[in-house]
Fold this protein.
Amino acid sequence: MKLICIGRNYAKHIKELKNEKPTEPVIFLKPDSAILPKNHPFYIPEFSEEIHYEVEILVKINRLGKHIAPKFAHKYYDEIGLGIDFTARDLQTKLKEKGLPWEKAKAFDGSAVISEFVPKSTFNDLATISFSLEKNKELVQDGNTNAMLWKIDELIAYISTFMTLKIGDIIFTGTPAGVGKVSPDDVLVGKIEGETFFEIKIK
């Protein structure tokens, strides 16, 4: 099972981190060891002093696919979830400055929060799903899939050009603006369309 993550898919998030707007999707991976076990707190790793939350809509792949045409991409998933791509921002900044890969800042143990999944038929329009993240009951991220630079089907088609998608693979589709630092005793609550999908305690 692969965790395939998309970076820089929301214009306002690109702007807040002062990144260059990409001309095609930015792809990176997390290993399955990055998945935070259900009902476990997130422990801030000793190698970072600036762990950021990034809430994202998730898509679970339900069939094997390679070189998928955009018009057929909708057949390759039938469930939607919510997650967090925890990022060691201080470490990532140093790596980016040296032109090095991001994995140490993105793929560490516990860096991927994955909620339960629900049928995509739950939503009237996948192109207008609203989602949010609250930190200590304060709204910090408020996103909508209508602001994606590349929509879900486009991402599936693009990713499948480079790597075979397998049953159970999960795509993190990118984060909206509002990312920020977590501290011990914080509580993060992720919601889709106002419904709670996860609650994470920070240690």
About this structure: The mean pLDDT is 96. Residues 3-201 form a domain with the Fumarylacetoacetate hydrolase; domain 2 fold (CATH 3.90.850.10). The longest helix spans residues 152-162.
